[in-house]
Design brief:
With about 325 residues, the protein is of the alpha/beta class. The chain has 2 domains: about 200 residues, Rossmann fold (3-Layer(aba) Sandwich); about 100 residues, no CATH class. The chain has 10 helices and 8 strands. It has an 8-stranded mixed beta sheet with strand order 1-2-4-3-5-6-7-8, with helices on both faces. α4 runs antiparallel to α6 and α5 packs antiparallel against α7.
């Protein structure tokens, strides 16, 4: 069973000037002359963490971590102006050019897998390979699974779903519209209640029985993160319906490993299954006991093994 590589520190950190209000945090670690790989974090509202460097052999990889616009250490935190998918793709490509990297490996999980696929479809010649975890295709069906009262994951955690509903304004609008109404409102109590229950809902679905309810005070950072997540969701992630699957033809020559936990209730396995049908050259690895997050022995073993194997073949 493979484990994370030992802790390392970056050899360079800087902010990418995007030409907009955003300054995007970048760090580089590992071997500057190694195989270039960019880690694309999830969310869209999360950020990179020191352990994200550890999926890669530092002797073999030039490891690049990027906090997406408004995320992590990027500035200004939580900014929604000029914060959209095409901007993120442009940042990735600008960074590649600035670092003078000809081609690189894309490593992305959840929303990071979405971003990896969209970038690769726009710049296939710049991608030497992809490792995708917990694929999220940003289709209406994916949103309905997470935010639908009738036929989604709400049927598995009805008590947590009910708590979310009770935190929102009474309305005939759909759950996403009600969430946005609450979280972008002027009422501090309404904002805090909605943000707390939204985070409890997402945590419950992602972690299952391992999740412990959060009743702590909601911070300004929590509010900004949830607003960013909803900003992308209510704009359908700034892409057309089924855009990713319909444009997979340009990815057929890119070595791809898709890793998905059978127990993933945030992004069900069906998405990676459909993706592999569209990318028959891709290797699909299904982990029977893993869920959504990039933790746990089974998931870490699969991700580290994927980076080790591609280091040999790329």
């Amino acid at each position: 069973m493979k484990t994370l590589y030992p802790e390392i520190t970056p050899f360079k950190q800087f902010f990418l000037n995007t030409g907009s209000v955003h300054q995007v945090y970048i760090e580089q670690s590992g071997n500057p002359a190694g195989i270039p790989v960019i880690f694309l974090h999830g969310g869209p509202c999360s950020g990179t963490k020191p352990d994200h460097r550890r999926f890669f052999n530092p002797a073999l990889y030039h490891i690049v971590l990027m906090d997406q616009r408004g995320c992590g250490q990027s500035l200004p935190f939580g900014e929604l102006v000029d914060n959209h998918t095409q901007g993120l793709i442009a940042d990735i490509e600008q960074l590649r050019q600035q670092l003078r990297i000809e081609q690189w490996l894309l490593f992305g999980g959840s929303w990071g897998s979405t971003l990896a696929l969209l970038y690769a479809q726009q710049y296939p010649q710049q991608v030497m390979g992809m490792i995708l975890r917990g694929s999220f295709l940003a289709r209406q069906a994916d949103m309905d699974w997470f935010l639908n009262a009738d036929n989604g994951v709400s049927r598995i955690y009805p008590q947590r779903w009910q708590a979310l509903l009770e935190s929102l304004p009474a309305s005939q609008a759909n759950i996403l519209e009600r969430l946005c109404e609450a979280v972008f409102s002027d009422s501090s109590s309404q904002i805090e209640n909605a943000v707390r229950e939204w985070q409890n809902w997402g945590g419950q679905v992602a972690l299952g029985n391992a999740y412990q309810q959060q009743d702590l005070a909601v911070t300004e950072k929590d509010i900004l993160q949830v607003r960013m997540e909803l900003h992308y969701a209510r704009n359908h992630y700034f892409i057309a319906e089924n855009q990713i699957l319909e444009h997979c033809a340009v990815l057929q020559d890119i070595p791809t490993i898709i890793i998905h936990g059978q127990q993933d209730l945030t992004c069900p396995l069906e998405a990676s299954w459909q993706l592999q049908q569209a990318l028959p050259q891709a290797e699909l690895i299904i982990l029977p006991n893993a869920g959504h997050i990039a933790k746990g022995e089974e998931m870490i073993d699969a991700l580290v093994d994927a980076t080790d194997r591609l280091a040999i073949t790329l």
